[in-house]
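#structure-requests
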Amino acid sequence: MSPSKGLWEVYGQSGGRKGVFYVDFAKKHAFLGSLISIAEKKDLSQERLSQLNKIDVSQIPLQDAVVMGNPNAKFKVIVFDDPD
């Protein structure tokens, strides 16, 4: 369901690009673009896409990681590299 009544929110990927689009309940119309909340002045599509693409960094295995700096620092940066 989308934040707007009468529409489904569809999450998809095409050509390596991820996006959100909307389809009406009658399945006759679809639109690609931002769904904007006028009252809140927010881009609801972008917020949803950010939620869907969020990565849980606690699931990244770090047992073979090279640690630089304080391992107990408040903020961490994880960099992926292919040495080959």
